[in-house]
Specification:
229 residues, six-stranded mixed beta sheet, single chain, 29% strand, alpha/beta, Rossmann fold, 7 helices
């Protein structure tokens, strides 16, 4: 077991009005799984992803990651777990415009205080793997959307996380570039990295092993795509 949510609830309060975003979520992600989470806008998908990624805490319930109960741990501890074990891929890429593609990908390793020679080796390897080494010195606005998403995936991979969380990773791409990104996520998953993806696209979801449907903050159905080891 890599990640487990037990009776998780998330409530937001605004001007004295409580809004329930997640209600009694029980979910387990195994090492090596590829899971898609689907549902209409406003159903709680992003809230769920934020809690799974230790970016937010549940109002109630427990989140267990790598055997540690994280719901009430310090922000510093949660940040440590994120840096060392979780990679994020966003629909909007979230690349830093003032940095080159190389520098964007290198940044997580600098936070981890990895020596410069090792940083250079890792960045070079991941850029070659994702076929963007020739864009190393370009800035994000100088390359295509598909190449930017590849750079975002490279940045998510660079610290060798056990879990990648992808929020609509094909949402800003045309069908051909979207297919490339999905095939890349499948390749990473087959190499052992767990992937949890939020998506509106049934086509993208078909690449995963499990499809979980969320509605009004609750898990309503789950489809098993294929048997995993």
């Amino acid at each position: 077991m890599l990640l487990q949510l037990i009776n998780v609830e998330k409530t937001y309060s605004n001007f004295g009005i409580d809004t329930i975003a997640l209600n009694d979520i029980n979910l387990t992600i195994k090492q090596g799984e590829f899971v898609s989470i689907m549902g209409p806008s406003g159903c709680g998908k992003t809230s769920l992803l934020n809690i799974m990624g230790l970016l937010d805490k549940p109002t109630k319930g427990e989140v267990i990651f790598h055997g540690e109960v994280t719901s009430n741990t310090s922000n510093r501890k949660r940040a440590f777990l994120r840096r060392n074990h979780i990679g994020f891929v966003f629909q909007s890429f979230n690349l830093i415009e003032e940095l080159t593609i190389y520098e964007n990908i290198e940044l997580p390793l600098m936070y981890l205080k990895i020596p410069s020679n090792e940083r250079k080796r890792r960045v070079g390897e991941v850029m070659e793997r994702l076929h963007i080494a020739h864009k190393s010195n370009f800035f994000p606005q100088q390359i295509s959307g598909g190449q930017q998403q590849r750079a975002a995936v490279a940045r998510a991979l660079i610290a060798k996380p056990s879990l990648i969380l992808a929020d609509e990773p094909t949402g800003n791409l045309d069908s051909a570039r979207g297919q490339e990104v999905m095939e890349m996520l499948v390749e990473l998953n087959e190499a052992g990295t767990s992937v949890v993806m939020v998506t509106h696209s049934s086509t993208a979801a078909e690449y995963s092993q499990r499809i979980i449907h969320l509605f009004d903050g609750q898990l309503v159905t789950e489809n098993l795509k294929k048997v995993t080891n």
